[in-house]
Amino acid sequence: MTYKDLANLIFPNITKTIEDYEKEYPIRNIKEDAMVTRFAPSPTGFVHIGNFQQVVMNYIMAKKSGGIFYLRNEDTDKTREVETAVEVIMQVLRYYGMEPDEYEYDGKVIGNYGPYIQSERKEIYHAGIKHLIEIGRAYPCFCDKEHLEQMRENQEKNKMRTGYYGKYASCRNLSAEESIKKIKEGLPYVIRFRSNGNFDDRFWFQDLVRGKLYLNKNDQDIVIMKSDNLLPTYHFAHIMDDHFMRTTHVVRGEEWLPSVAVHIELFEAMGWTAPKYIHTPLILKQDGPIKRKISKRKDPEALMRYYMEKGYPVEAVIEALMTIINSNYEEWHTANPDKSFLDFDFQAKKMSSSGGALFDLEKLNNISKNIISKMNKDELYEKAYEWSKTYSEELKNMIEQDPKYFKQIINIEREQKKPRKDFETYASIPKEIWYMYDALFTEAHSYAFQKIQDPEEISKILKTYIENYYDELDDKEIWFEKIKKLTTQLGYCADMKAYKENPDAYKGSVADISTVIRVALTTRAMTPDLYELLKLLGTEKIQKRFQKFYK
Ligand code: GLU
Predict the structure, then answer these.
(1) N or C: which end of the chain has fewer CB within 10 A?
(2) Considering the entire predicted model, what is its pTM?
């Protein structure tokens, strides 16, 4: 009995061969240097920022080279699967404008290299495994858990490398006949790869971030097919999928670096060329004095959901990630503020590989503030409104009750050389503008009066102003002249220069008077332009707000 008989016994229904699949999934008809990249998440129900960073890189590489970016759902670990996971992934990709060219979602398969869901690719994997068994490069292993645990303990005790290899790999010595007999007896088994490697031999491999790496050859007979669901392990699925989907560049986390030797040997055993690899460094967070791995358990900002819920503009998150992908991005972006990240000359080798990349929320906040400050009112309105429909009932209500009024509010000090920068995210808009809405003004608020605190004085300022000076038809110049007149009438200094030269000679300045008006109107000492605020509120609302302070 031969390996062929063994292969037929294990996979009696697999009739298609590797050659058949080579024809079914031909080399892609794209330019020679076009890159085919993929995002291959496991369906865990969230997208980690580290994975999203890889998405950005994959997307750039495919788009800039005229290639393909596709999504593959790696659902072979059924125990970790979350039902809505693919929805979450597509939602994140679409939110950030990184629509894959090929994917399977919502009952649709887009692309000719599918299925794009691993659990639907069983036959392809089985054809690959069948082939390896036939050529003697894979075999069934009947070792049970207890045996493997015992083996590991012994290895540890004797300070040997752990794993199923060399003399420890007992089932690799079974003849085809012996294996067939055990299978016929109904013994459970997994399929293992038969490694030809010698661990003491070294080889080099080129990682596009880290450069040439010298590694020990693989000698582990790793499991390639699990017994419970007959699905392949990550290692084997990676080989089959990235070959038949014709991936040219694999971008994945550095946690896969130790598996490279296995993958290279698997590709060799199949007679295929491995894709190019980019192993991305970990994303770190500054935690007090230390930098540590950003963690989905401890840090909400580890997951993309955080940035979506907070309402960071799409461009802000991409920009913040680009600055850690290539450290020269910031300089380039400053010199080319109107260009898209896709115009940037991204280079994997410029990525930092030593120790990880620091993702700084403070920096993101700054980027975000700047991006929002540069939007015109219509753009900000559209984006904030769109965002609010999913994430903020509060903002949505504000906008919908009077879209024009909302636009006027956000337009104060916008579209000018030094625009307002008080909106850090879309979510922060209500807390910066609530005071423009009477309905929100009913609760008790504390008023941030500054230099002038005396209730009698405050009452006098507000009353005199509204009764003798304020006229909503005034232009800004006249309006300010009147504030100055009010200032002088009440014995304060209307000329800031004179005041600064001799502050003790006056009760206070025009700035202190304006502050009283500002605080009485908004509760705050700092707001955008007071003239515009007054105008938008209108005399009636102003009066109502001032009345609270009349003595
Ligand atoms: N499913 C693997 C993961 O989520 C993918 C790694 C890869 O991109 O090959 O880690």
Answers:
(1) C
(2) 0.93
